Amino acid sequence: MEKRFISQPSLVRWLDKLNSEGKHIYAPVKKGGERVDFGRISSVDQVSFDHVQTTQSAKSVAFPRTEVLFSYQKEKGKVQLDNFDPEKMPSTVVFGLHPCDAAAFNPLTAIFSWNSRDELYDARLERTFIVTFSCTKADESCFCTSVNGGPGNTTGSDIQLTPVKEGFLVEILTEKGIALVKANEDCFEADRGEVKEDYLAKLPLKFDVKAVQERLNTAFDSPIWKKQSQRCLGCGACAFVCPTCACFDIQEDAHGAKGKRLRCWDSCGFALFTLHTSGHNPREVQAQRWRQRLLHKFSYMPERLSVRGCTGCGRCSRACPVDMNISEHLGSI
Amino acid sequence: MKNTFSSELSQKVASMLESGEVQLVIGYEEGTKRPRPCFISDAADAGKLIFDERCTGNLTVYLTKKELIGDSKVVVTASYFALRSILRLLTENQVNLEKLVVLTVSAEGHLIQFETTDDIAAFIKSAPVPAREDDQVLMQKLEAMSREERWEFWSEELSKCFKCYACRAACPMCYCTKCVVEENRPQWIQPWASTLANIEWHINRAMHMTGRCSDCGACGSACPLGLPVHLLSKKITEEVETSFGMNLNDTLQGGNALSTFKPEDKETFIK
Ligand code: SF4
Ligand code: SF4
Ligand code: SF4
Ligand code: SF4
């Protein structure tokens, strides 16, 4: 891994150049009030640097809220299918996301390549460059350190920037990262020998993830799910803001002889989740849906895919209308 | 922040739980950043109850959840708007006052327990409506817009909606076990997120709230994206008031604007 330095003015120049190359740049922008969320930007001035976390995660660059899998047209017994076209997907730089979001592409990829690779997801991710900002502050919902992450964790990042004196420490982590720097060599200077850790947020552990995982292995029938889920309203807010939640639903946008097949986000919080055509639902009540959420992330995924479905970003806790604080719940299991 | 009022409340519900008069208390406890809903069935836990000016979330959303409540007799601590929701739910036969103990706090800081629906209605009438300045400012801005500007405003806002349905889940009046957006034979509303499909969903929700919304704002405050969707139902509530003369506070007398027949209605087709 190579380290470099970039000054604030050079950062502006660098993003301008990426933008003029035709790359779509997504970065955290202020959305009124305390809210900061990803939006397409054309210059560094629009980027928010002082927030703790964006409302939504960056997962939609590879797994959009609604996406067209293919479209079709029927004519006199013939069907014409048009597959998604990877050539039409823009080359995208996600800039200024935090380490917990970058790390989340690992579990997402694990899900989307479980039995077979998901071409659409792969195609989008392949065209995406991840430039993270390490975290200099955290809030009461953050718990990345409890799930083996951290404010300076570089997993999933192509490049990581850490704000230091007069500019940023640049860590170039992957081939993609090298390519992004190489094309704009003049923006980068030699490493100034800054110690990254001096600038990072301090985040004490909230629970022992190994112990939690062990307890979860035998907790399927525990009465704790009913108790914990009492106030849960069964909405999709927690899943929709989560960088690793990947449940989807297939929908048909049909208009007579033509139409599109769509893939849309789903949530295990919804009452319709896993409802069978027979009328039977293996997760009939909210307690079972809440259990599904925690076990899927902290037991089933580690077991089957060797990744955890949670990077401790704390978004689900911030977004939940009734304050279902996930780290608090995990700690009390 | 544990005030004397909260301990008065804790004592009261503890004794109600102990005597077996009620089996479940739906109240507030301290949360991560602000008070959150809590459920107490053991008198020993009553001490964590709070009820102060920060407790504005509408707890009545839980009163129609059968899996939570079952046959229990329930205490609910109701904020001003939650009282309106209770009246509404009573009108719609969704709650039974015999199975419910409704508590609130008066402006002077006294704990009030309601005996009858009329008592609740009278209290709402006499109590000052809690001010929500941000809403007022935005409403005025919207009122001052032309139709085109308003369409643009809402198209822009609603295009962001990702259909998590937190607005629906938080609304005490959204108690259907199957929502119209989940109906797929026929599919009345496109269930995916896109500007048009989102507008469809929100117009539908607002229409379903016509004359029913308790103006609690829970839908808007639940929205993780901060979309002011509660203003849609608020506006439609005001329209019902001016067009049908039905005031929110007369809920019990007024019935439901869209499903109540009156001989003196202007429409003649039904006669
Ligand atoms: S935990 Fe919160 S955000 Fe998730 S479904 Fe329940 S109420 Fe909604
Ligand atoms: S489960 Fe919650 S804390 Fe974990 S990654 Fe998802 S949103 Fe973040
Ligand atoms: S529509 Fe919104 S404001 Fe009206 S009762 Fe439901 S949650 Fe409250
Ligand atoms: S809560 Fe907000 S984002 Fe979710 S469905 Fe309602 S308006 Fe859309």
Proportion of beta-strand residues of chain B: 5-15%
Strand order of the largest sheet of chain A: 3-2-6-7-8-9-1-10
- The chain-level mean pLDDT of chain A equals 95
Q: How many strand elements of chain B?
A: 5
The proportion of strand residues of chain A reads 15-25%
Mean pLDDT score of chain B:
90
The largest pleated sheet of chain A is described as:
8 strands, mixed
Count of helical stretches of chain B: 11
Query: Runs of chain B with pLDDT <50, length 5+?
Result: none
Number of strands of chain A: 12
Topology (elements, then pairings):
The complex is a heterodimer of chains A (333) and B (271).
Chain A: E1 2-7, H1 8-20, E2 24-30, E3 36-41, E4 66-75, E5 78-83, E6 92-97, H2 99-103, H3 105-112, H4 119-126, E7 128-133, E8 159-164, E9 167-172, H5 175-182, E10 189-190, H6 209-217, H7 224-229, H8 237-241, E11 248-255, E12 258-265, H9 286-305, H10 315-319, H11 326-331
Parallel strand pairs in A: 2-6, 6-7, 7-8
Antiparallel strand pairs in A: 1-9, 1-10, 2-3, 4-5, 4-12, 8-9, 11-12
Chain B: H1 4-19, E1 24-29, E2 36-40, H2 66-69, E3 74-77, H3 80-91, E4 100-105, E5 111-113, H4 117-126, H5 133-143, H6 147-159, H7 166-170, H8 195-208, H9 218-222, H10 230-244, H11 251-254
Parallel strand pairs in B: 1-3, 3-4
Antiparallel strand pairs in B: 1-2, 4-5
Helix pairs in contact in B: 3-4, 6-8
The structure holds iron/sulfur cluster (4 copies).
Task: Describe, in plain words, how this protein is organized in 3D.
The complex is a heterodimer of chains A (333) and B (271). Chain A has helices spanning 8-20, 99-103, 105-112, 119-126, 175-182, 209-217, 224-229, 237-241, 286-305, 315-319, 326-331; strands at residues 2-7, 24-30, 36-41, 66-75, 78-83, 92-97, 128-133, 159-164, 167-172, 189-190, 248-255, 258-265. Chain A has 333 residues and is an alpha+beta fold. In chain A, the strands form two sheets. An eight-stranded mixed beta sheet of chain A has the order 3-2-6-7-8-9-1-10. Chain A has a four-stranded antiparallel beta sheet with strand order 5-4-12-11, with no helix packed on it. Chain A is globular, with a radius of gyration of 21 Å. The model of chain A has no long low-confidence stretch (mean pLDDT 95). The mean pLDDT of chain B is 90. With 271 residues, chain B is α/β, with parallel strands linked by helices. Chain B is 40% helix and 9% strand. Chain B starts with a helix and ends in a 17-residue tail after the last helix. Chain B has a five-stranded mixed beta sheet with strand order 2-1-3-4-5, covered by helices on one side. The longest helix of chain B has 16 residues, at 4-19. In chain B, 38% of the residues are buried. In chain B, β1 (24-29) and β2 form a beta hairpin. The chains are: A alpha+beta (333), B alpha/beta (271). Chains A and B meet through α8, β11, β12 and α10 of A and β2, α7 and α9 of B.
